[in-house]
Amino acid sequence: MNLEEIGITKEDLIDKIAEKIMQLEYSSDESEYGYDNTIGKMARIAVEKKVTEHVNKSVLTAIDDTLNKALSELLEQTVTPVDIFGDKAGEPTSIKAALATRAKDFWMQKVDKEGKASNGGWNTTSRYEHLMKEHLKSELDAVIKANLSDIVAGFKGAVREDCIKSLDNNISRFFR
């Protein structure tokens, strides 16, 4: 049940509860604590917080439910595609199906190596494949740049070991 349905606003409810609690008000000495520590004020703040949380939660739930229902109904509506002159240009379909087809066509479109739309050719790929390659390339470049000093150090160590082994073998053969 909603508070407004019974003619009470959130503020009215908070005021009524606080008014009842204020009748039980116990004040402490202001100088002892440095502030007015009344049960009524503390209770009003606590009640206001709880009521606000409840109202916000119920309002957000109601808004989400309403929006989800409206969006579902909108996506399931049947539409007929038309050309720029308003003439029928296809079979009736739902907005959801039209969006799915449009998205699939977009991702499957052939693009060149720069990601620009292409009419085909031997050096084209689908848009999703191009974007995945670009993403992986940038990620790999970042990892390589981050670990370049370790890679170079490892390479230098391997070359040094190979040189030492080779030199040792040559010296051993020379002094046999």
Average pLDDT rating: 83
What's the β-strand tally?
4
Backbone CA Rg: 37 Å
- Total of DSSP H or I helical runs spanning 4+ residues: 5
The largest sheet, given as strand count, sense and whether it forms a barrel, is: 2 strands, antiparallel
Identify the overall geometry.
Answer: flat
SSE order, as H and E?
A: HHHEEHEEH
Helix-residue proportion: 55-70%
The order of strands across the largest sheet is 1-2
Key traits:
176 residues; two-stranded antiparallel ribbon; single chain; 66% helix; mainly alpha
Describe this structure in words.
This protein is mainly alpha-helical and 176 residues long. The chain is built from five helices and four strands. The protein folds into three domains: 3-75; 77-108, no CATH class; 112-174, no CATH class. It has helices at 10-22, 30-33, 39-76, 95-108, 127-174; strands at 78-79, 93-94, 110-111, 125-126. Strands 1-2 form a two-stranded antiparallel ribbon. It has a two-stranded antiparallel sheet with strand order 3-4. The protein is flat and about 110 Å long.
